[in-house]
């Protein structure tokens, strides 16, 4: 989870700030407008993390502006739970049965649906749906790729698959897709990129891969992102974070260690396919490339994960 103060100190409200400071800070580029009457102070972070921080500050601003009771839900609640989102939402999603004069806000999407008290909690001072409710709501309303990344992360945090399945309300919009996503989810996925890679492979007929494959080599024991032991095929997702934040200022050393690691794995007869974020734009092409490495491969679309 992110720090409890995330996005709070960086939030600036016009109602409690001198207008001259806001004008000067905006001219200097140190203050950015979030929504009407609210601004934030951007921090020096990696771009995706910066987008998350901005989105959380936006939720805090919206919460101040809304008059009646509200509960953050769907992708907004996922932000507060620090769940992985491939696309950061620009609008706030709230459950609100009635509105005040601020009811016409363009940056807020209201969902007039039931949300019993047992489905709500308080995160960092904001009321939001529980983890299980959030994951299921996202799985049934977001694109399958985003939903799978969320469910994978939830399973990795220890949420039971059976509890998510039980939270799928019969007849709710998107519940069929949510159940399909929950069924295919795997808590071994360590990043949204790995989840979406696996989704493309499943969609286009490849057998279900194993995640976090343990391989002992002469250079030590390594864990592959996903693959198939029967064909000794390993698929590695190369996210930018591996060569930026996790590199601790030395990306060249990370690249060198990755080279040594792959050589040691290939010495044991494994074939390694590397996947970058750009490869995820062509799911069929990615599946074909990986499928050529498997001894038996037939392409059939996987139902339910569209």
Short characterization:
The protein has 306 residues and is of the alpha+beta class. It has helices at residues 19-28, 47-65, 74-80, 131-141, 144-156, 161-166, 175-184, 192-203, 251-266, 283-291; strands spanning 11-13, 32-35, 38-40, 71-72, 92-95, 108-111, 120-123, 126-129, 210-217, 220-228, 233-238, 271-276.
Q: Would you kindly provide a written description of the structure presented here, covering whatever features stand out?
A:
The chain is α+β, with helices and mostly antiparallel strands. Helix content is 37%, strand content 19%. The chain contains 10 helices and 12 strands. The chain has helices spanning 19-28, 47-65, 74-80, 131-141, 144-156, 161-166, 175-184, 192-203, 251-266, 283-291; strands spanning 11-13, 32-35, 38-40, 71-72, 92-95, 108-111, 120-123, 126-129, 210-217, 220-228, 233-238, 271-276. A 4-stranded mixed β-sheet has the order 9-10-11-12. Helix 3 (74-80) crosses helix 4 (131-141). It is globular. The two termini are 30 Å apart. Mean pLDDT is 85; it is low at 1-7 and 242-248.
